Amino acid sequence: xxxxxxxxxxxxxxxxxxxxxxxxxxxxxxxxxxxxxxxxxxxxxxxxxxxxxxxxxxxxxxxxxxxxxxxxxxxxxxxxxxxxxxxxxxxxxxxxxxxxxxxxxxxxxxxxxxxxxxxxxxxxxxxxxxxxxxxxxxxxxxxxxxxxxxxxxxxxxxxxxxxxxxxxxxxxxxxxxxxxxxxxxxxxxxxxxxxxxxxxxxxxxxxxxxxxxxxxxxxxxxxxxxxxxxxxxxxxxxxxxxxxxxxxxxxxxxxxxxxxxxxxxxxxxxxxxxxxxxxxxxxxxxxxxxxxxxxxxxxx
Length: 300
Fold this sequence. Notes:
alpha+beta, 10 helices, 11 strands, rod-shaped
């Protein structure tokens, strides 16, 4: 057997130790037990047998790894190419083989690459989701504006008329009858917003300058009805500048909401809640945003 190459099992049987012990010898002192053949299983030259026996003997005497290495260096030649590098010396001394050490770094590198790819994919997904949310917001406003525009076109531009034919001595005459509003009703109609204004979806501008709509994109008319449902009585409209103001009592305190027709950055027409007076004092944009949020919860 001295002329044949030896496996881990052959060395273990000849030395009288386990295969694990031989592999430990190899990991701690690779330069003294060089591999003769890298085929599976690994094979070693016959000179590895006396080295392993000497290692077993020195460990039995209670010597440390460093002491055993010095003894081996004085008795056997060392293969410099298989000497463990300085960085890996501590790991090899702890019983970690060179192959396992390299495999560990290879696996760790793959894990780091995978984590980096995952973080990049997550960031891209968040960007796509943000763009999708903005697109849905714009589409919802556009759909609401289109719906109310179509409703406005479907309304008759004239009041209903009734044609009456009257026969007399001079022949037949026709008369057109129209419903005319009473003076008081006409005056009230002048103060209220027109139908196209009431049909605009309600929106506010946050402190960051972003347009924010009300849940469900209700028109101003529906939003005003929801406010009146929470108020102590019906509200009253008044013309203010280029917009309209709705005054009502909420929670026992007078509220005045000022609406103006504005175009969003995307070109959509909305009824902007430009101001809110609580007990005749103007509130902050943050208060307006919280006020609208609570109304959205009640309207949901």
